[in-house]
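Regression test case RT-17, inverse folding.

Input:
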């Protein structure tokens, strides 16, 4: 006789949690990118603008370190945001050799638009959960992120931006 538990597929076994996190995470990232597309932004652009909203005047070096990304890759993203008038580089008052990054008025407005998109995205993604369940899920995910030593508010994908293939034995 088989147990009712072995035929019950309504709740996944604990071993499937990692897969489900990856599945939902990949889906959420793709959906967010689609929601940003009308603004002509990529998720890394949105993350940079968000970081600057919290740390206006941050140097390029400090932003690169905060995001854990290669400085050369960050410069490309910053150039695109500056060309669109969303941020500006100013000479740093502490070090004339570096730039301080500041959101422009258009950049601040874009951050607000991104915030509305992020809210809509969260609501659509979590539609199956009530407010209490969403709070519980957020708390559990925050615990997992902290235990995994992930930087709060920073997508780990920045670490991969700009990385080429690993060097082989010849260089």
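Golden output:
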């Amino acid at each position: 006789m088989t147990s009712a538990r072995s035929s019950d597929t309504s709740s996944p076994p604990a071993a499937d949690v990692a897969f489900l996190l990856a599945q939902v995470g990949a889906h959420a990232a793709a959906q967010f990118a689609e929601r940003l597309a009308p603004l002509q932004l990529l998720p890394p652009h949105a993350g940079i603008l968000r970081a600057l909203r919290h740390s206006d005047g941050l140097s390029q070096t400090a932003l690169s370190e905060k995001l854990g990304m290669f400085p050369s890759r960050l410069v490309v993203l910053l150039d695109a945001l500056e060309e669109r008038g969303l941020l500006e580089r100013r000479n740093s008052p502490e070090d004339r050799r570096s730039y301080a990054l500041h959101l422009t008025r258009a950049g601040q407005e874009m951050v607000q638009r991104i915030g509305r998109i992020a809210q809509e995205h969260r609501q659509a993604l979590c539609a199956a959960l009530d407010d209490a369940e969403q709070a519980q899920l957020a708390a559990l995910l925050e615990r997992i992120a902290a235990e995994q030593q992930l930087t709060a508010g920073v997508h780990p994908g920045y670490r991969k931006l700009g990385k080429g293939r690993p060097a082989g034995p010849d260089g």
